[in-house]
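Comment thread on ticket #2218

A.B. wrote:
> Attaching the input chain for the structure job we discussed in standup.
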Amino acid sequence: MAFEAFACLRILLFFVSVASFYFVFVLRLKPWCSCEICQSFVSSTWSLEFSNLCDWYSHLLRRSESGTIRVHVLDNIITANPENVEYMLNTRFDNYPKGKPFSAILGDLLGKGIFNVDGHLWKFQRKMASLELSNLSVKSYAFEIVVSEIRSRLIPLLSSVAGKENGVLDLQDVFRRFSFDSICKFSFGLDPGCLKLSLPVSEFAVAFDLASKLSAGRALTVSPLIWKIKRFFNLGSEKKLREAIKLVNVLAEELIKHKRNTDVSSHEDLLSRFMATIDDDKFLRDIVISFVLAGRDTIASALTTFFWLLSNHSDVILAIREESDRVMGSKNRDLASFEQLREMHYLQAAVHESMRLFPPVQFDSKFCQEDDILPDGTFVAKGTRVTYHPYAMGRMERIWGPNCLEFKPERWLQDGVFKQVNPFNYPVFQAGPRVCLGKEMGLVELKTVALSLIRQFDIQLASPNQTLQFTPGLTATVKKWFACGGTRKESIVLAVVQSKTSNRMQI
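C.D. wrote:
> Ran it. Output below, let me know if you need it in another format.
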């Protein structure tokens, strides 16, 4: 009886809390705003014309004279104006931190990791990570991991299906497995084995995926009160999130405990290196989990959209192959070295161009500390969320010219040599004090994987004419779609793999 009474009381409190929330929500978010943007957002009529929310925002930002819009019902300013981006990320960096609202969303998963904090905690981790990631031996260690994963697992996996009648793989799943194996080896010294030929299910990977997805889902709720109430009562998605994070924590704690009992002085993984200066195991866990999150999904996302673009641009594949033959030799089937990759300017251009159109992180938000005015004249009140939008910026004619919607690696080349652009026009890796520390290592991984597959296989997408749709999340993940009335689940990035023929059959 006491248990039943408690359960009824718990349910009653939940519904009272939800009712209270909706009352506050109605007062706070001004759903009566009659502007075109807010009405379209609230009613979801934007989805009648656009496949992705980011495409709708891109349309609105192109149409805006300043390249900035307001979504009043979300108290969010969204900009694709490079001057505003530079102001936020560099000029007034201290006035636009990650902010407590963002930290709360990812706090249970990332804790006090570098991507979820501001101030002295961020500065300490930034300095420490910068010293480690700029170390030549660390870069070499990361490269060796990538090369080993390609040779021992990625190429054998694709070879196992190449030429078969049903030689089809879900590239997005393959790239996620590849990047998870690689980043876990680099961060923990742990090999989950996700990319073995049998494509096993990793309990750690499943828990990590679920925790990432549900944490990102918090940002999609109309108010943080919703997920906080669910977390308080341990209900629904918050219950699943708690269970997933518990499993992630158990494994992380076991790894740290094991390393504490062994000599890690000769180990190259980040966890072993950080242990030399950090005694707090909880803090260590937060730091390394943050690197796993950043290094896994971004790489997989970038590779997925790159090969989707290549499927419709056989001329780019041909140009990459010809360039690699000049640098490596046409009969060389080994993987490219650091030095050889540096000489491949067209490959570098193609990777950058792909991420211009499909950045792994499509948008990023900061929270204004004090009242401010952006360079385009937009007033920003204290506490307002300000979002800069790399996805939309890649589609702005005023930044990239009238052919901005085209996939043209040549726009990055000057006399055949790759040329960097203003980072505030292309904030794919952020810019300013928070610019991505793993940028160069990430680019090397992307180019090494892409080149190894382009030189050895012909990859044709099973559904090349499908429009890319993305699931909401921390990074750009291609949606699954259902064919034949939902009876057959497929990924839009299913690929037919063939060994590359001697006459280099184009895909």
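A.B. wrote:
> Thanks. Noting for the ticket: Residues 1-30 form one domain.
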